[in-house]
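A reminder from the course coordinator: this example appears on the midterm review sheet, so study it carefully.

Given structure:
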């Protein structure tokens, strides 16, 4: 696991659409000198998967096929980027990880939660974040931030996004030692300070 002595620490940002993950993950990675990556699309292969999954022109993609594509992206992501960096002692910050599959394909699409979890565990070889930061933004605020030009996931109905957010909160409640929930509605700097404080407290890292 990534918390072993001599290894880097692994931090994932999770949350619904337009919650500020990309901004805050970049801020934290810069402060830590960490490897910044994302899912889907952190690798060249993952970029192709990202284009397929998020393209509004992709129609009739079954929930199971979607889950398997995300798992394939994650397997390549861990093998190519995450595990080598952690093994070399470098911290890794990712914009989304397995928590998103559980929330989107599990709670959102209605696939069995434990099957999605086990699929991700198999894809990653058991690599799991040391800390997961959930940026919490109400659905109406997220909808306002998104605007009109939306990808395939962003264009899902409000009921889907509500189920996804509920899925994130269920995971955070089930693993309070691994997850921290941070209000994503204040300004960027205020959220960044809250993230830094949580990372310093939970992982004893100087930010």
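Designed residues:
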């Amino acid at each position: 696991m990534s918390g072993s002595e001599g290894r880097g620490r692994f931090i994932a940002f999770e949350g619904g659409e337009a919650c500020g993950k990309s901004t805050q993950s970049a801020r934290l990675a810069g402060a830590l000198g960490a490897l910044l990556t994302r899912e889907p699309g952190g690798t060249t292969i993952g970029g192709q998967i990202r284009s397929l999954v998020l393209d509004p022109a992709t129609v009739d993609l079954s929930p199971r096929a979607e889950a398997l594509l995300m798992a394939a992206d994650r397997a390549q992501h861990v093998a190519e980027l995450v595990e080598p960096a952690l093994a070399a002692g470098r911290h890794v910050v990712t914009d989304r990880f397995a928590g998103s599959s559980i929330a989107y394909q599990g709670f959102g699409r209605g696939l069995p939660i434990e099957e999605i979890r086990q699929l991700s565990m198999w894809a990653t070889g058991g690599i799991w974040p040391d800390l997961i930061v959930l940026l919490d933004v109400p659905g109406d605020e997220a909808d306002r931030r998104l605007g009109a030009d939306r990808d395939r996931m962003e264009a899902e109905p409000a009921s889907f996004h509500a189920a996804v957010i509920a899925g994130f909160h269920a995971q955070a409640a089930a693993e309070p030692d691994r997850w921290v929930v941070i209000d994503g509605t204040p300004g960027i700097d205020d959220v960044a300070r809250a993230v830094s404080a949580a990372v310093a407290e939970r992982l004893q890292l100087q930010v």
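The chain has a mean pLDDT of 95. Helices lie at 21-32, 44-54, 63-87, 98-108, 113-124, 139-146, 158-174, 188-203.
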